[in-house]
Design goal:
Layout (H helix, E strand, L loop, with lengths): L5 E6 L20 E2 L3 E2 L2 H9 L4 E5 L5 H7 L13 E5 L14 H6 L2 H5 L5 E6 L2 E3 L3 H10 L4 E7 L9 E5 L5 E6 L8 E10 H10 L8 H11 L4 E5 L4 E3 L3 H10 L27 E2 L4 E3 L2 E2 L4 E2 L2 E3 L2 E2 L4 E2 L4 E3 L2 E2 L4 E2 L4 E3 L1 E3 L4 E2 L4 E4 L17 E3 L4 E2 L4 E3 L2 E4 L11 E2 L4 E3 L6
Parallel strand pairs: 1-4, 1-6, 4-5, 8-12, 14-17, 15-18, 16-19, 17-20, 18-21, 19-22, 20-23, 21-24, 22-25, 23-26, 25-28, 26-29, 27-30, 28-31, 30-32, 31-33
Antiparallel strand pairs: 2-3, 6-11, 7-13, 8-11, 9-10, 9-11
């Protein structure tokens, strides 16, 4: 009989709709980060660095790139005969076909998978945060407190606490009360969406709540455990943790990587971040090129100037082009004579010559002001932008555009340009 002390279930089905055109063709955990990685690399690397060698990855929305990236788990040393990494999409059952309808429903539908390992503990993770955490230390805390459920929490500024699920604890770290996004929070300890359950407690809660629609951990499972006398403890974490759920926070987290002493260090020997890397040639930097405070991926060709930017693998920056404060993802080609400013440009984009982005006034986006903000220009993957156009701030572009899409050669600030067949 296979027996694992703790297995991990990684929720990676999220659409990440607040990332707009960046996630119109790809699940949020598969979005590129830091030039070389994808967001899901961080929780997967945390697992292997913490000695957790059995991980179920639950996918749903646009899973293709995620599946290809994870493969059989070789980069994370998770290509094991027993355990390892397993991708768990929703599947059709004899009686009905069901999508995952909530985070807990997704876990419930994979009870059989979990039971094959007879785990004592199950670690529940989400696939869309950037952080390093030793889950073994959290497990030791869970055992020492004889808890049924341990929730990782971190202190947040009181004025931001209403955006999170908040826990209230006594002097022994036992949770006495919950508040889900409260108007008047009673504490500033926010749940990080990282849980360790004793398997018996998790199974009991999931089976009892199986008919609950959109069954969710924060809204249903945790309150159920609390109301039914289970012991819930809060494990406080004080390291770097970033939810990259909005374009602004995603852009900021990437920009923080190029600080002289980055708050989040990708280069620590003892806590490596692993990823699936293609074998590609080294970068080429021409004699006229200038690069300052930037991360440049393998296989790039830089003929222009790059300042304060994160450039993915295989990107070309043409002669006379200046890239500033931007994120350019892999295999994107930028022509000559362009000015790219405060832009997030997704994978496999083609930009013509003499294109200017991030120009004009900081006007809110007309269609989705809560998504396309922060003064950024956001360009979705496989987009084509013709030569000699100017693109304003708080704009979104997706699809194969041509000169006729830009009146007088301009896409004004606050406008959205999505060509048919592209969803934003």
């Amino acid at each position: 009989m296979i027996k694992k002390e703790m297995i991990a279930m990684l929720l990676a089905g999220g659409q990440g709709s607040r990332l707009g055109v960046l996630t119109s063709k790809v699940a949020k955990p598969a979005v590129a980060f830091g030039g070389k990685y994808r967001i899901i690399d961080f929780p997967l690397s945390n697992c292997i660095n913490s000695g957790v060698d059995t991980v179920g990855v639950l996918t749903q929305y646009q899973p293709l790139r995620l599946n290809t990236h994870i493969g059989i788990g070789i980069p994370w040393d998770l290509d094991k005969n027993i355990g390892g990494v397993t991708v768990l999409p929703p599947y059709e059952k004899s009686s009905n076909s069901e999508w995952y309808t909530g985070t807990a429903n997704a876990i419930y539908q994979n009870l059989n998978y979990m039971e094959t390992f007879h785990p004592e503990y199950v670690l529940i993770l989400s696939g869309d945060h950037i952080y390093k955490m030793d889950y073994e230390v959290m497990l030791d805390f869970h055992k020492a407190n004889n808890a049924d459920v341990t929730i990782a929490v971190m202190p947040v500024p009181m004025e931001e606490a209403s955006r999170f699920g908040i826990v209230i604890t006594d002097d022994n770290n036992t949770i006495t009360e919950f508040q889900e996004k409260p108007e008047h929070p009673k504490s500033n300890l926010a749940s990080m969406g990282i849980y360790i359950f004793s398997f018996a407690a998790l199974k009991k809660a999931l089976v009892t709540l199986k008919d609950q629609s959109n069954c969710d951990f924060g809204k249903h499972v945790i309150p159920y455990c609390h109301e039914n006398g289970m012991k819930l403890c809060a494990y406080e974490y004080n390291g770097y943790w970033k939810d990259v759920g909005t374009l602004g926070s995603y852009w900021e987290a990437n920009m923080e990587l190029i600080d002289i002493i980055p708050e989040f260090n990708l280069y620590e020997e003892f806590w490596k971040i692993y990823t699936s890397s293609e074998i590609i040639p080294p970068q080429y930097v021409s004699e006229d090129a200038k690069i300052e405070r930037s991360l440049i991926g393998d296989g790039c060709e830089i003929y222009g100037e790059v300042y304060n930017s994160v450039i993915g693998a295989g990107v070309t920056v043409g002669k006379g082009t200046v890239v500033r404060d931007s994120i350019i993802m892999k295999e994107t080609q930028i022509g000559s004579g362009c000015t790219i400013d405060r832009s997030i440009i997704a994978e496999n984009v083609e930009i013509g010559d003499n294109v200017v982005t991030g120009t004009g006034e900081d006007i809110p986006n007309k269609e989705k002001p809560n998504i396309y903000s922060f003064g950024l220009t956001t360009i979705g993957e496989e987009t084509v932008i013709p030569s000699n156009v100017r693109i304003g701030k708080n704009t979104a572009i997706s699809g194969k555009t041509d000169a006729s899409d830009y009146p007088d050669g301009v896409l004004e600030s606050g406008e959205t340009l999505i060509k048919e067949g592209d969803l934003a």
